[in-house]
Amino acid sequence: VLVEALLVFAVVLSVHAAVWDRFSWCALALALQAFYVQFKWDRLLQLGGAVFQFRGAANSGLLPASMVMPLLGVVMKERCRAAGIVYFERFGIVVASTGMLLALFLSILAVGITKPVPTNTCILTGVAGSVIIYTMKHSLAVSEVIEVLEVLLIFVYLSMILLYLLPRCFTPGEALLVLGGVSFVLNQLIKRSLNVIEGRGDPIDFFLLVAVVGVVLLGLFFTVLFIFMDSGTWISSMFFHMMTAVLGLGVIMPWLYRLIQRNPLFWLLQFLFQTQTRLYLLVYWTFLAASACGVVFYQNAKRSSESKKHQASTITRKYFHFIVVATYVPGLIYDRQLLYVAAVLCLAVFIFLEYVRYFRIKPFGQTLRHLLSLFLDERDSGPLILTHIYLLLGMSLPVWLFPRSCAPKGTLPGAGALVPYSGVLAVGVGDTIASVFGSTLGEIKWPGTKKTFEGTMTAIFAQIIAVALILIFDSSVNLNSSYAWILASVSLVSLLEAYTTQIDNLLLPLYLQIMLMA
């Protein structure tokens, strides 16, 4: 935990040194108080004193999760300020302020339910909170303050509902990261739906917002519904499919039509088949998807042919990482907008299939349960299987969160040019190589972990080679001699992979993106 905290502080200090403004000072104050409060959360989890049931075999992860949204907002603000885009500079300030307020709320919650009350931690949280609120008071307009408070309100209600319905699926840090992100997206969708006349935003951004909110609302609706009826019967399954069609065509489609001012289905078909390059990419991705399904069926056939209980090895699970890298790299090089939309569609399909598996919806629910149980690991301790969704999110978030409006030529200068590749480097290359080489050749273990020195060093080396290959094949990337910063960023994130107990597929790409944008 201490080494993980040191690595997070190294990232915070790096961003602070690069930006050096009032918000970077606030991020530093937030990191200090989150470090102390994290131990209170860990103690609550060990004693079973937390309000909800969180994922076991991991610490609370409050510090690394608390810093993601504030740091993303700070570096986005700085990039857009340098580009002279005032609207997105203010948007970055709102993102940073929202992240800080959500992290403070989770800290106050931990301090409030800890008995006896930790006096020193209370004082530190109070001081950090005062600094942050004072800065927000002098930096945000009234409408921006209201927006931040709306996200906090959505987060509180969403947390109470989902953490109760989905026990042992998240650590407190993962809940902050996932539910905080969903709350922010929901608030953005409401805000943009009300102000659609302004005409701000790209249709693909609206597509992402509506898809994320749509699948979350769909899940909440069926979770409440199936409390009162058995989801495994044919009648319930028919009702599930019928209501999915009704909500999709009767709510989500009209909502998207209002935002993009055209028929969503026609727009999507026109977008997907606009050029010959897109057609080639779609055929190639279909082949890779079929290959991934083939791996699943082959491993399950192998399990059924063995008498003892067979579980997929680490190396077998990393096949999917290789397939995902092969999927994303051509998209990043040839057509990032298509990759953006395809990743949104894939996320919606993944979450829908997880609903089918979780609720045992006929005819495929039980089959999916059987097929996917082979690939479970210790992080899938709750009722949901989320690791494959986290892998997709880890690869996609750097593409979705890339500030296109603040990059007039489609790319940021220096190390920022690698921002869309953060998921490929951190998860697709680094995490995969570390796992494969660490589990097969690793002998020297990092103190206090199961991860090996050999795995981490190989991961760093592999990511450097990957950066060199990106420079060769992607002509839009120009690093401008920022090689030392890239090496430091890759090394910090690889060390964080060795020491964190959080979902690395989600956390590592975001930290690498923050470092590269800084």
UniProtKB/TrEMBL annotation:
Chief place where the protein resides: endoplasmic reticulum
Lineage: superkingdom: Eukaryota
E.C. numbers: 2.7.1.108
Annotated localization: Endoplasmic reticulum membrane
Ranges in coiled-coil conformation: none
Molecular functions per Gene Ontology: dolichol kinase activity
A cellular component annotation (GO) from this entry: endoplasmic reticulum membrane
Keywords: Endoplasmic reticulum, Kinase, Membrane, Signal, Transferase, Transmembrane, Transmembrane helix
Signal sequence, start to end: 1-17
Entry-linked InterPro entries: Polypren_kinase (IPR032974)
GO biological process, one term: dolichyl monophosphate biosynthetic process
Signal recorded as keyword: yes
Membrane-spanning intervals of the chain: 57-75, 87-111, 148-166, 206-227, 239-257, 277-298, 319-334, 340-360, 381-401, 421-441, 453-473, 485-512
Similarity-based family: Belongs to the polyprenol kinase family.
Protein's recorded name: dolichol kinase
Gene, per the UniProt record: Dolk
